[in-house]
Amino acid sequence: MSRTLFATLSLMIIAGLANLPGPATASSDFQATPFPTPTALQDGRILYVVLAGDSQWLISAKFNIDIDDLRLLNNWTADQILIEGQVILLGLAQQEAPTATIEPDADVTPVGTPEEQGTSLICVLLFEDVNGNALREETEFGISGGAVSISERTGLASDSADTTDAVDTDGDPVLSCFEDIPPGEYTVSVAAPEGLNPTTEQSVTLTLNAGDAATLNFGSQISSSAQDSQLSPEEGGRSPLLGLLGIIMLFSGLALGVYTLQSARRS
């Protein structure tokens, strides 16, 4: 073969090799294309309906979800087979917590720690201590015409009332009460009507807390002089009418004696 022909054949072979197709490469049409993530429901769940040909790995690639997370969300095993039309869970959307809003015209009042609230009650009975034992018996009742007063040490409250001998529908004595008074240290005093002597202390100091109710009994007994003035004649007392009648009878007796004596002298 001549050198010219050899050169020509060599060039033709080189040209033919140059036109041969190169090594096959993956087409971009076969690359995994991420799918848009479905919209989350109101409860935050993101759901997906399985299509024909879907698998765990394909869905993981579609939505860029880790395969282990996908299996955990749906409680799958590694060999779980998916069925067309099956609804699966892709994830849970994070919902923002609702924030409280205040209307521009809203009247907002700060609330502080409430202090202890409550009032107290004091009730007083001035009773006739008939037997003088300083203890009220069931047969000893109230005395009218007396006075009772209360006074709180710091000046928070002070008040006074009259005592009474009234009884309620159950036959119990009616008390003199001071209601809705503030807690504090109180001095309670009573004054009996004229002619009565006290058989108990007439002044007491006590401390009341919120909600406390105190009932105090003070005793008084009629004095000896008053008893004498109130005794009936049968009890040894003196009646002015009987005294006057005695004087009249005395003078009548004297007059009758004088008349008798004069009549005897004349005869």
Folded structure, characterized:
With 267 residues, the protein is an alpha+beta fold. Among the domains are: 32-93, LysM domain (Membrane-bound Lytic Murein Transglycosylase D, Chain A, Roll); 120-224, Immunoglobulins (Immunoglobulin-like, Sandwich), CATH 2.60.40.10. The chain contains 5 helices and 10 strands, in the order H-E-H-H-E-E-E-E-E-E-E-E-E-H-H. Strand 4 (147-152) and strand 5 (158-162) form a beta hairpin.
Q: Helix amount, in percent?
A: 10-25%
Low-confidence stretches: 20-32, 100-116, 231-237
Question: What is the H/E string?
Answer: HEHHEEEEEEEEEHH
Oligomer: single chain
| First and last CA, distance | 231 Å
User: Count of DSSP helices?
Assistant: 5
User: Based on the structure given, which CATH architecture of the domain at 120-224 is correct?
Assistant: Sandwich
**From the alpha-carbon coordinates, what is the Rg to the nearest angstrom?**
59 Å
The profile of the biggest β sheet is: 4 strands, mixed
- Write out the strand line-up for the largest beta sheet, numbering strands in chain order: 6-3-10-8
Shape: rod-shaped
**Overall mean pLDDT score?**
76
- The number of E-state strands comes to 10
**Classification by helices and strands:** alpha+beta
CATH class of the domain at 120-224: Mainly Beta
CATH superfamily (homologous) name of the domain at 120-224: Immunoglobulins
